Amino acid sequence: MNILYVNKFFHLVGGVERYFLELDRLMRKKGHQTSLFYMQHPLNNRSKWQKYSVSQISFHDPGLTKRWRQLARLFYSIEARSKISALIEETSPDIVHLHTIYHHLSPSIILAVKKRNLPLIQNLGDYHLVSANYNLFHNGAICEISQGGKFYKAFFHRCVKNSYYYSLVESAEKYLQALLGWEKGLVDLFIVPSLFMKNKLLEYGLPENKITCLPHFIDTGKYKYSGRQGSYLLYFGRLSEEKGLKFLLEVMKELPQIKLKIAGTGPEEDNLKDFVRGHKLKNVTFLGFLEGQNLIKTIAGSLAVIVPSLWPEVFGMSVLEAYSLGKPVIAADSGALPELVKDNRTGFLFKTADKEDILEKIKFLLNQPALIKKMGKEALKIAGEDYSPELHYRKIMKIYGNFAAGKKLKGNFSPGKGFF
Ligand SMILES: [Zn+2]
Fold it and tell me: pLDDT tens digit string along 62-118?
């Protein structure tokens, strides 16, 4: 099979990029041909598809002239459409699989793909298909104020970055897309990594036959499980408000007998460090950004991994990484996390943002080395069996095969007319 994979970034930014890169690697390993379409960036991996990549643009630049350029790019990129067309001409893919395309690539590429009648699949890694707000989280709480297509409410509520400007742009983008129906109408199938996300999209009105659930995968062979019990609690991931780190630090005030290590960077880093200094917390250490073997060693040295998210997580790769090293996970019961963490078997779930509940679970686990080991082994088994690359490959081939066999799924949405 010949597949064209599309994502705005071609370097590791978060879970979306990780899946984009690993899926491409898996498919090539299995003997399939793949090609890649993305935006230019100094951190990009080297690739023979570089000549088709679109020029770099940053949406953090506040300059007014650049803002006009940004807006044009966000709504419809002529460059992206023409370059993906040239790439399709060269590679003639059987199927096009999109990941995140918002802003940097724009939905113009969807029109290029559909003009050639190619099957089009999209993986969703956030809620932006149905909301101006990507993570349905705002001002310290879950925010679904624009549900029911009322995107203007996101503007008045400043749901995006607490800014009227960004909220206006994102809301306008959603109205335009709803009007044209490109994404919802022209994408043949949306793949989501959890049942939680599937149900959320159904709640927002997407038809069931347009959504399928396929969790991400992990190669446990790359993480050498030693069975050694570690000595500290660990959080690793982005340091942003919705990840619940501030809440976790409040919890650590009550647990002077145990250490917490925090690996990662993000917009909340300085605030969190100030909090630790201000409250004289001696049991919290910041490790900065870790990856590869350094991250693996840090997870391996932990007693358990904590995932205190406040937002409705769409998946939880950190849970699978912890499992691959035989570590139990104590996670909030938000979003997809209850699908990954088996309460009392591979760790514990606590009521999201409930300090008493998480304290009870941590204290209970601390004094039970045998239970920690047992849960870790069960976690490792689940990662290896339910989230293996082999199983993922079989499932995705089934999805691709349905299209290749001409059994295209019919959606209820009608595509925007006259835009070819
Ligand atoms: Zn809001």
Answer: 565 666 666 766 677 889 999 999 999 999 999 999 999 887 778 889 999 999 999
Distances (CA, A) of 161 to 61, 124, 297, 310: 14, 21, 35, 17
Distance 25 CA to ligand 1 centre (A): 38
Q: Could you tell me the distance, in angstroms and rounded to a whole number, from the CA of residue 168 to the centre of ligand 1?
A: 12
The 10s digit of each residue's pLDDT in 3-45 is 999 999 998 888 899 999 999 999 999 999 999 999 999 999 8
Query: Could you give all domains of the chain from N- to C-terminal order, each with its CATH number?
Result: 2-125+188-217+389-404 (3.40.50.2000), 220-386 (3.40.50.2000)
Averaged over 344-355, what is the pLDDT? Answer: 98
In whole angstroms, give the CA distance from residue 340 to residue 334: 11
CA of 138 to the centre of ligand 1 (A): 5
* Distance from the alpha carbon of residue 320 to the mean position of ligand 1, in angstroms: 30
| Percent over 70 (pLDDT), the chain | 92
Distance 137 CA to ligand 1 centre (A): 7
Which DSSP helix (H) or strand (E) runs through 233? strand 232-236
pTM of this prediction? 0.91
> Ligand 1 centroid vs 368 CA: distance in angstroms?
42
